[in-house]
Amino acid sequence: MAVQGLGAIDQQYDGSALRIGIVHARWNKEIIDALVAGAIKKLKAFNVKEENIIVQSVPGSFELPFASRSLLKDENLKLDAVIPIGVLIKGSTMHFEYICDSVTHALMRVQEETHKPVIFGVLTCLTEEQARKRAGLDPGMHNHGEDWGAAAVEMPLKYSR
Ligand SMILES: Nc1c(NC[C@H](O)[C@H](O)[C@H](O)CO)[nH]c(=O)[nH]c1=O
Ligand SMILES: CC(=O)[C@@H](O)COP(=O)(O)O
């Protein structure tokens, strides 16, 4: 079993001045909703204000890079980081592999182009069971959305402000 969860938090972070975007896909809604809730729960635990958490949705994970870049470049939003959230579950074709690979690389490019943290919130699962466990919907693992919320606070406070 892979080591679970973030490494221990290395210092106390105060996210009260941060503005964080969450953009989520609409595929696999029950799992997505749990991951988004986990991310928001952790953002608030780090004092990020509810009004400073901007949540939007896109059709699927393939649209996450475009939306993430648009949110980060939106001068009206003034986001410090974005958490793209998607759940990709292997089907019967190679569609899964191509989306996983392209979205992963595209999200990294958004980070490099915008110089703002893009937290990797995409589950790339072979089964629905794997995805449900990683959203905390079934026992055995924690809600990975909480990890992503914590990372979205740490990174801009450490590197972007
Ligand atoms: N199969 C999954 C998809 N597929 C849809 C694509 O992400 C994209 O929206 C479509 O190809 C139009 O461009 N998306 C997920 O998020 N999860 C899946 O399991
Ligand atoms: C991740 C996907 O695109 C996948 O769920 C689509 O299923 P299929 O490969 O059977 O078309």
Automatic annotation (TrEMBL):
Superkingdom to which the source organism belongs: Eukaryota
Keyword Transferase belongs to the record: yes
Swiss-Prot/TrEMBL keywords: Riboflavin biosynthesis, Transferase
Pfam families: DMRL_synthase
Root EC class: transferase
Pathway(s) this gene product operates in, as recorded in its UniProt entry: Cofactor biosynthesis; riboflavin biosynthesis; riboflavin from 2-hydroxy-3-oxobutyl phosphate and 5-amino-6-(D-ribitylamino)uracil: step 1/2
Reactions the enzyme catalyzes: (2S)-2-hydroxy-3-oxobutyl phosphate + 5-amino-6-(D-ribitylamino)uracil = 6,7-dimethyl-8-(1-D-ribityl)lumazine + phosphate + 2 H2O + H(+)
GO biological process, one term: riboflavin biosynthetic process
Listed EC numbers: 2.5.1.78
CDD domains for this protein: Lumazine_synthase-I
SUBUNIT field: Homopentamer.
Function (record text): Catalyzes the formation of 6,7-dimethyl-8-ribityllumazine by condensation of 5-amino-6-(D-ribitylamino)uracil with 3,4-dihydroxy-2-butanone 4-phosphate. This is the penultimate step in the biosynthesis of riboflavin.
Descriptive protein name: 6,7-dimethyl-8-ribityllumazine synthase
Organism: Komagataella phaffii (strain GS115 / ATCC 20864) (Yeast)
